[in-house]
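Here's what a typical entry looks like (ArsR family transcriptional regulator):
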Amino acid sequence: MLSIAPDIEVLVRFGRALADPIRCRLLLALREAPAHPSDLADALEISRTRLSNHLACLRDCGLVVAVPVGRRTRYELADPRIGHALDDLRTAVVAVDAGRTCADADEEGCC
């Protein structure tokens, strides 16, 4: 019998990454093209320290990889299918009422 734990772990990691708006913006930016941290920090208008923390989370979740390029490091999605998954998620969530926010995870009825 096959275990479904690895599938669940993948979804948990993806969910953890998507739980933060900055990480969502990072993933969408990297979906467009690989980038260096300084360029990402400028594009997202956040400090490099804050960016570094979010990139570390995305690396730990297995969604992005750091690629050495000379003396610099470039970040990219770990797999092109992650970009496709982001596109699918963006287009699948069509029943969003712009006037409502998602409940906190601790509340009953969270999305």
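Confidence is low (pLDDT under 50) at residues 105-111.

More examples are in the samples folder.
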